[in-house]
Design goal:
Strand order of the largest sheet: 1-10-9-6-2-3-5
CATH class: Alpha Beta
Helix content: 25-40%
CATH architecture: 3-Layer(aba) Sandwich
Number of strands: 10
Radius of gyration: 17 Å
Bound molecules: fructose -6-phosphate
Largest sheet: 7 strands, parallel
Strand content: 15-25%
Structural class: alpha/beta
Distance between the termini: 17 Å
Order of helices and strands: EHEHEEHEHEEHEHEHEH
Shape: globular
């Protein structure tokens, strides 16, 4: 665990871990949590020109260039600022008629590419990672599914209103995520405190999907003071420059 004293420090610590070893395939989350890390990766141009960015999840039902589509977000926040072509940003085929088949192909394509070297994650306040909601089996692979109302409500801030938030998605499964060689999980703000406290103090359970990662040999949780408040002796806070 890395405890950082500000969201900029969270970003610096995360970016350093992500770039280490010059990864060929980086698994990318969207949302608020990774934004400062992406800013750092761009500022130092820390990823190689032929890096492949592999989406953690994607909404179903938004038009191809919709700004809230996760592929659009990653192109805007990371790929284009790094000078990477759009075709190096990979997402599931959420426009396919058969979403289960599209999810299977996404898993298969990742296997063919050699898997994810480093996976960047946020965490939902219910402990979800990707769109794997509580109850998802730990060994699950990429799959299509339905978003919970909690997650739709949490994500409504990125849309005009709640009605615009899609109901369906394709996500990497918990088993897919756990197969990444390195995991960097970023948690910022007080709404993550309960999930992080449970994650770091209780045995693994499918009620808290992120706990599927507890056995992973190379997982780092990077949080700010608010997110880590339930598990942290504040004297251990460190700064990353
Ligand atoms: C995003 C994703 C989600 C988010 C989580 C936290 O691709 O899969 O699991 O990481 O909902 O979201 P933020 O960072 O916006 O609080």
């Amino acid at each position: 665990m890395i405890a950082a004293s500000s969201s900029d420090d969270v970003g610096r610590a995360a970016a350093a871990l992500v770039a280490e070893g010059n990864p060929a395939v980086v698994g990318v989350a969207t949302g608020s949590s990774p934004i400062t890390a992406y800013r750092e990766l761009v500022r130092h141009r820390s990823l190689c020109d032929d890096v492949q960015l592999w989406l953690l999840d994607e909404y179903v039902g938004l038009p191809a260039r919709h700004p809230c589509r996760y592929r659009s977000v990653i192109i805007e926040q990371l790929a284009r600022p790094l000078g990477l072509p759009d075709h190096q940003v990979h997402g599931p085929d959420v426009d396919a008629a058969d979403l289960d088949d599209a999810a299977e192909r996404y898993e298969e394509d990742l296997r063919r590419l050699g898997g994810v070297d480093v996976q960047i994650l946020g965490i939902g306040r219910n402990g979800h990672i990707g769109f794997n909601e509580p109850g998802t089996p730990f060994g699950s692979r990429a799959h299509a599914g339905v978003l919970t109302e909690t997650t739709r409500a949490d994500n409504a801030r990125f849309f005009r209103d709640l009605d615009d938030v899609p109901h369906r998605m394709i996500t990497q499964g918990l088993g897919t995520i756990a197969a990444a060689r390195r995991i960097v999980l970023i948690a910022s703000g007080p709404t993550k405190r309960d999930a992080i406290t449970t994650l770091l103090t209780c045995p693994p359970t499918t009620d808290l999907p992120a706990s599927a990662l507890l056995d992973h040999p190379d997982v780092t949780i990077i949080g700010d003071q608010a997110a880590l408040a339930g598990v942290l002796d504040h004297s251990t806070l460190v700064e990353h420059t």
